[in-house]
Amino acid sequence: MNAVVRTVLGDVPADTLGTVDAHDHLFLRSPMLPGQELDDPAAAEAELRAFAAAGGTTVVQWTPRGMGRRTADVVAASRATGVHVVMATGTHQAVHYTPPPTPAELDALAGTFIADLTSAPVRAGLVKVAGGFHGIDEHARRTMTAAAEAHHATGAAVAVHLELGTAPLEVLDLLCGTLGMPPTAVVLGHLGRCPDIRVQREAARTGAFLAFDGPSRAHHATDWRLFDQLAALADAGHAGQLLLGGDTTTAAARAVDGGPGMPYLLRVLRPRLTREFGEELADRVFVRNPARAFVLRRPGTDRGGAGGR
């Protein structure tokens, strides 16, 4: 069976994704970001057009359930611009919901995630969950358990928000140790917010994908550390696990509203990556690695080991 990625317009061969923004948001709302909602379909379409003009062909939207995914508008924007969009199901931290979900609701999430991935009118292509600060609280444990069950049933990747970049090893112990997921089906987000390269290398040795995603985040000093971290991980043999994303979460961060937005990845970061490390690594980070990270695996299989080379 040929490897495919599930987009909002249907499954596409993984090797046709092209240049990928591996973590971003077209639509998003949260009580933690009052007045900063991403909820304008015209602006979302304009951002996708700007990304396409810079050479981008696929965006992976990590917005989970209950945070304004606006699935119909995502479909319309993808169709209008020709940019592939891979949409998430999943659940964020409890603070992003009013009221927060109950334990009983959390325990029922696996079926909801599986339906979103397999039978919803607009199907998701990955599951997004979130850890806590330097640990995994009960909410995170329950949502990750549901996400792992959804992975085992569907083969979808699980993308993890690491709070301020912390607890990647604890997350991997739960998902891949206790819950039996292959590390190659896990994408660790926000690693750059906690630039502990020793922990990053330990996480990389498992085979998990490592997402560095922060150019739009003015309150996180991620950019100046980024290239040192990428160099350390590539030198350690993990170039095949690196991903880059913009993680645009507010209207002001969009390129169409004066921020860096999605195009920044290709206008600024990709040329720098090419100058410093060569085109081969840039092609891995933006093209080949995402095609492996977000592929739908056959349920119950682990395609490969560490995957670092």
TrEMBL record:
Cofactor: binding comment: Binds 2 divalent metal cations per subunit.
Entry-annotated residues carrying N6-carboxylysine: 128
Pfam families: PTE
Domain of life: Bacteria
GO terms of molecular function: hydrolase activity; zinc ion binding
InterPro entries, per the entry: Metal_Hydrolase, Phosphotriesterase
Annotated positions binding Zn(2+) 2: 128, 161, 190
Cofactor(s) needed: a divalent metal cation
Statement: the UniProt record of this protein carries the keyword Hydrolase: yes
List of residues binding Zn(2+) 1: 23, 25, 128, 247
UniProtKB keywords: Hydrolase, Metal-binding
Family membership noted in the UniProt record: Belongs to the metallo-dependent hydrolases superfamily. Phosphotriesterase family.
Protein name: Phosphotriesterase
